[in-house]
Write a structure and sequence with these properties.
It catalyses: ATP + protein L-histidine = ADP + protein N-phospho-L-histidine. Residues 1109-1146 are annotated as: Disordered. The chain is 48% helix and 18% strand. By secondary structure, it is of the alpha+beta class. The termini are far apart. The chain contains 35 helices and 38 strands. α17 packs antiparallel against α19.
């Protein structure tokens, strides 16, 4: 036993000895490591100091290099100045005739020999000195010689100022005793009347000439060996003491030669103190020297001893430029100057370098000391605390492990670790084993197959990426279900199971995360019994479905009721409006007006409820289509421009140039939101102003976002009302609207529509001040949108006279957008002052000024003027000579008026003509002479198309007569002779085919053209086979219409005797093709035409799109292929537009005008549509849809065009009335009412 104890003690002693030995070895290694680390810190600090020194030296060398460049530029400018001075002297000395010097200068020279000249352009003076000998020698030529010298001095001084040379220069005569000092020695004081001031004559002043000449020639002799530079040679001399300033200078000297004879010396001097200040090093540390090519030191920023100067001369000779030379006394570097002048030398002693790096070296040393101290303290205490900390950490680890085991066993959640390769359970607590139905003590067990399948389905294994990148969870049944029940396990209704007496199965929630355990990829899983929660969710889901079904039923009820109410209400209001127009009821007009107002209010209530129901039920579908944003907003502004009426309310439309683009969005819903906001503003504002602002900005993704702002000066709202403003059925306080009642749904609908479009709406209001509504709606760019084009070339200046600064700023942006340069003034006096010295392209004057004021402005500058007024026309109209009036609510009209005024193009007065309103119009060309006075009978049942076709025919010089149907057209034809008949195909009473048959019985030769929106090839061929002479598509451009009429109309000069070529001959085909080609060419060239009153129908003006060639592109195609469109059976009739040829957008004013005409037509036509639906008249519905199609084509509403065509095809393809016809007609009726605001006429 004792031996065992001794052996144990020996082994223990050996172990302790080995531990002590290892400890000492580790201590030595530790100390060596600490020492090496401290050495590295010291070396690193030294490296930082060296880097700082090099950076400082590089900075100084760069500074010196920049100084050398600047100095070289200065020297080069001096030499260039001498060269220009030689040219100046040569010019004036060789000129045949020059101006004499001012009289005061001549008198001063004659009296004293000294005078001062002045150059007003540069506000500088110069001195002229002429000695007695020169004055005597000049004699009678004194005036001429003095004039040449004076002119040369003036030009030389201007050159000196242009070169920005502040040093003094001199022109010194060699043969004659004269000199010119630039600038003057006595300052810049001048006599305002004479431009020169004489100096008091004294001998020293005149003797300066000889002194200065002698000093310069002496330096030239010393440095070059000759007293005058060669011809074209420029020599730098000095340093020497300047007799004028008594300071050391260096001078650039050249000579002016007449032929080969030197006449004058030209010198430019630079004081050495100026050079010393320019080359001084930054911070005053070190010295910078200017050294000549022969190593002679010209100037130094600081005085140096001779030994240092000699050292620097030797060092510069042995060192390449741009390089550092490190010597025992410091660092030397030099930068070359211009060729032949030497170099700029920098000298930094070591002491100066250390002083410059003082704070940097201090920081580096302090940081190094702190790091060394930190290392020493760490080394001192780390070894003592190492074992203690290791023991504590080991103890804490054991305690933590024990606690983890207790927590895992006692937690009420099942915990387990699952191997990811085969989904076997590696370890688990008791609760997890119980929930998973796994017997404890059985070793490794696999998860149930259906749970393993859920793991695989949730996160399948992938080699390329981690299958589980985050914590995930899923719910699965505790026991496997049969396949028949598995599909419905999660949707089983718990309440149904309970009623059946069956206990629902258990459900387990697995929450898992990836981990590593024992070198394997595992999943750490938490298992929880969620059977009760799952059952509750099933019950809540069933309750939600029931609630949603009830909400849908309620919404459908409201929608159906609103529709059922609105159908008879529209008929009632339509008949009420007709009843109000019945003669003899004037005494009841007030009652009828009250009934109309009440009916409109009721219809608005029904519309609001219907829109709200659609939105609430999720049935409000958005239409995303491209549209011109600016046109949409200008139409809105034009529709509200006249709403102020007699009230003291001003309406402002401030539309940004960013709106001038095509975007993708729901134009109808955007217009509905803005219309609602403006309608409320006009409803609640009795005085003050209402402002509509809109612009397009780009979001962070670069997509366009529409931002609108509607502000008013109404009564305002309290914060409480603003907080609940966008809740249903919320209205203002009693009396706030002054009798304007509503459902309180308008703003709610705006908010919901903005949310549907991905935007937002907000409101700010102050009681007694007004309200502001802000709308933000994201849009999308069109697929073919081009990047923003740069600003157009400057087209010239415009003068704008306006009071309102906000309007002025916006107008300036628009003018810049169009390429103009605007000069804006706010007072008449400023405008008059500007016009006295400037000539603009045109004047732009606000409506605050009258025509007399404009005439006064035009008297100053006879240019065109644009008078922008609130009540002005929608297209430019003449208001006297050179003045065009236009409304301020149409940017397109304003732009057209400005361009017309700038180009000086005449615009007829409204009584005789109307402008086309297009940008950059050209004068209207004369119509084809064959169409002049051509009597055209038009059979068309749509009033909008009637107005348009009459307007176009009048523009072409024809005399149109419009009939509403075929029967009326036939009656007119029997009483009046016509040259051509243009008939619609589908009309009530008598359609186009019936009219053709009737006309052929009466006159077999009259040309009859089919006029229809359906222009497919097979339709056109069918019309030709039935006897039509050709066809014209709806809408027809002027080019198409002219080509069709020229092809079938006789020529003017052949009206009496016509030699018609035989049908089918070559001559006939050539004549037809030639006529079509010429007509098509004129159609393309024509960009505008004057509208003439048509017989039988009033033509309000030429449609913008037609007059500008902006209707279907078939017009341009006809111009390029005239002959190909002519056949023996269809003579030169304009071809129908191809499906890809879309009409160009209408101008805003034309869009507004035709839309207003369409709305007036729909007031009577929509009740007729409801009557057709009530009567279930299929043929009448087809005719209505056909007529409406043409109208919507004119106003460019492709959505309604397509719906009307679908409705017409449905009627034509069916033999009886169907439910789909009813639904489509009612849906179209409601959409038209919503789109055109037919229930809110008070707002328009």
């Amino acid at each position: 036993m004792q031996k065992i104890l001794d052996r144990s003690q020996e082994s223990l002693a050996q172990a302790f000895a080995s531990l002590a030995k290892n400890s000492k070895r580790q201590q030595r290694v530790y100390l060596a490591t600490i020492g090496l680390l401290m050495l590295m810190v010291v070396v690193f600090a030294l490296v930082l100091a060296v880097v700082a020194a090099f950076k400082q030296l590089e900075y100084r060398r760069s500074y010196a290099s920049q100084n050398a460049t600047d100095l070289s530029l200065l020297l080069h400018r001096e030499e260039s100045f001498l060269r220009r001075a030689e040219f100046t002297l040569d010019y004036y000395y060789s000129a045949a005739d020059v101006r004499r010097a001012p009289e005061a200068v001549e008198q001063s020279i004659a009296q004293t020999g000294v005078a001062r000249g002045k150059v007003d352009r540069v506000d500088a003076d110069f001195d002229i000195l002429v000695g007695p000998a020169a004055r005597t020698a000049w004699g009678t030529q004194s005036g001429d010689k003095l004039g040449r010298l004076y002119e040369a001095a003036q030009s030389t001084l201007v050159t000196q100022q242009a070169f920005e040379l502040a040093q003094r220069a001199a022109l010194i005569g060699l043969d004659d005793d004269y000199a010119v000092l630039l600038p003057s020695l006595a300052g810049a004081a001048t006599d305002a009347s004479s431009g020169a001031t004489g100096l008091a004559a004294s001998a020293p002043q005149v003797e300066v000439i000889a002194t200065l000449r002698e000093a310069i020639q002496r330096e030239l002799q010393a440095q070059t060996g000759k007293r005058v530079p060669a011809k074209g040679e420029r020599v730098w001399v000095g340093p020497y003491r300047d007799p004028l300033s008594n300071a050391q200078v260096i001078s650039a000297v050249s000579a002016y030669y007449q032929g080969n004879t030197p006449v004058a010396l030209i010198s430019a001097s630079i004081p050495l103190d100026v050079l010393a200040a320019r080359i001084a090093p930054p911070g005053g540390a070190g010295t910078t020297l200017l050294m000549a090519p022969e190593r002679r030191i010209l100037v130094s920023s600081a005085a140096l001893d001779p030994r240092t100067n000699a050292m620097l001369q030797q060092t510069v000779a042995a060192t390449a430029p741009h390089a550092f030379h490190f010597g025992p006394e410091g660092v030397v570097f030099h930068e070359p100057l211009m060729p032949g002048f030497g170099s700029l030398v920098g000298y930094v002693p070591w002491g100066a370098l250390a002083a410059a790096l003082g704070w940097q070296l201090g920081v580096i040393g302090a940081l190094a000391l702190l790091v060394l101290l930190a290392i020493a303290l760490t080394a001192r205490f780390f070894g003592l605390r190492l074992l203690r900390n290791a023991f504590a950490e080991t103890t804490r680890a054991l305690e933590s492990e024990t606690l983890n085991h207790i927590l895992v066993s006692a937690t009420p959640i099942g915990l387990c670790i699952v191997r990811r390769s085969d989904y076997s359970i590696l370890t688990a607590n008791a609760l997890a084993l119980e929930l998973l139905r796994v017997e404890p003590g059985t070793g490794t067990s696999r998860l149930p197959s259906h749970i393993a399948a859920e793991f695989i389905a949730e996160a399948p294994q992938q080699d390329s990426a981690a299958a589980f990148a985050r914590v995930a969870a899923f719910v699965a049944p505790a026991e496997s279900l049969q396949p028949a029940h598995a599909a419905t396990a999660h949707s089983r209704d718990a309440s149904t199971s309970a009623e059946a007496g069956a206990e629902p199965g258990r459900f387990l929630q697995f929450t898992y995360a990836p981990a590593r355990y024992a070198g394997e990829d595992v999943l750490f899983c938490a298992v929880l019994d969620v059977t009760a929660q799952h059952t509750l969710e099933q019950q809540l889901r069933h309750a939600q479905q029931t609630s949603e079904a009830m909400m849908r039923a309620r919404t459908n009820f409201f929608a159906a009721m609103s529709h059922e109410i609105r159908t008879p209400l529209n008929a009632l209001l339509g008949n009420l409006e007709l009843f109000a127009r019945t003669p003899g009821l004037e005494t009841h007009s007030q009652r009828l007006a009250s009934l109309n107002v009440a009916g409109d209010a009721l219809r608005r209530v029904v519309n609001d409820i219907l829109d709200f129901s659609k939105i609430d039920a999720g049935e409000m579908l958005l239409v995303r289509e491209p549209f011109a944003l600016l046109n949409a907003f200008e139409n809105i502004a034009l529709s509200y421009a006249s709403m102020a009426g007699d009230r003291p309310v001003r309406f402002y439309s401030l539309l940004s140039p960013t709106l001038d683009r095509t975007v993708v969005g729901d134009r109808q819903r955007i217009a509905q939101v803005i219309n609602n906001l403006l309608s409320n503003a006009f409803k609640f504002t009795s005085s003050g102003k209402i402002t509509l602002q809109a612009e397009v900005v780009a979001n962070v993704q670069g997509q366009p976002v529409l931002q609108c702002r509607v502000s008013d000066s109404g009564p305002g709202m309290s914060d409480e009302l603003v907080a609940r403003l966008f809740k249903p059925f919320v209205q203002g306080e009693a009396g706030a609207s002054r009798g304007a009642e509503s459902t309180g749904l308008g703003l709610v609908i705006c908010a919901r529509l903005c949310e549907l479009m991905g935007g937002a709406i907000s409101a700010d209001s102050v009681v007694g001040v007004g309200s502001v509504f802000n709308v933000s709606i994201p849009l999308a760019a069109t697929p073919d949108e081009r990047p923003a084009q740069p600003r157009q070339a400057d087209r010239g200046p415009l003068l704008a006279l306006f009071h309102d600064r906000q309007v002025v700023d916006l107008l300036g942006r628009w003018l810049e957008h169009f390429g103009w340069t605007a000069h804006v003034v706010s007072t008449l006096a400023d405008a008059q002052a500007w016009l006295r010295v400037n000539r603009p392209k045109a004047l732009i004057v606000s409506g605050a000024y009258d025509l007399a004021t404009i005439a006064g402005l035009r008297a100053l500058q006879p240019v065109g003027a644009v008078w922008i007024t609130r009540e002005g026309p929608h297209r430019p109209q003449a208001r006297g000579e050179g003045v065009l009036e236009v409304t301020e609510f149409s940017g397109t009209a304003v732009r057209t008026a400005i361009e017309l005024a700038a180009e000086g193009m005449p615009v007829a007065a409204p009584a005789s003509a109307a402008s086309d309103g297009t940008p950059g119009p050209t004068p209207a060309l004369a119509p084809h002479r064959a169409l002049h006075g051509l009597a055209v009978l038009v059979a068309e049942d749509n009033p909008l198309i009637q107005s348009l076709i009459a307007e176009q025919l009048a523009t072409l010089g024809c005399a149109p007569t419009v009939a509403a149907d075929g029967a009326q057209a036939l009656s007119l034809f029997e009483s009046t002779p016509f040259d051509v008949v243009l008939t619609d195909i589908h009309m009530p009473d008598m359609d186009g085919h019936g009219l053709l048959a009737a006309l052929r019985k009466r006159d077999a030769q009259v040309p009859v053209l089919a006029f229809s929106a359906v222009a497919e090839n097979h339709e056109a061929q069918s019309w030709l086979e039935r006897g039509f002479s050709g066809h014209v598509s709806k809408p027809a451009s002027l080019g198409e219409l002219e080509a069709a009429l020229v092809a079938v109309a006789p020529a003017l000069e052949d009206r009496v005797v016509r030699a018609q070529p035989r049908e089918g001959t070559t001559e006939g085909a050539i004549a037809v093709a030639t006529a079509g080609a010429r007509a098509s060419e004129r159609a393309v060239e024509r960009t505008g035409a004057a509208a003439v009153a048509a017989s039988g129908v009033a033509a309000p003006g030429v449609m913008h799109a037609a007059a500008s060639g902006a209707m279907p592109r078939a017009d341009h195609a006809a111009a390029s292929e005239p002959a190909s469109r002519s056949t023996s059976t269809l003579p030169s009739t304009a071809a129908a537009p191809t499906p890809s040829a879309q009409p160009a957008p209408l101008a805003a004013e034309d869009k507004a005008r035709y839309t207003a005409m369409l709305k007036e037509h729909l007031r009577n036509d929509l009740p007729r549509l409801l009557a057709i639906v009530d009567e279930e008249d299929r043929e009448a519905l087809a005719g209505w849809a056909h007529s409406a199609t043409g109208a919507f084509v004119i106003v460019q509403e492709p959505r309604f065009v397509e719906e009307c065509r679908q409705l017409q095809r449905l009627c034509n393809d069916s033999e009886r009335w169907t439910t789909e016809m009813d639904e489509r007609a009612i849906s179209l009726h409601d959409a038209l009412c919503d789109h055109y605001g037919m229930d809110e006429e008070s707002a328009h």
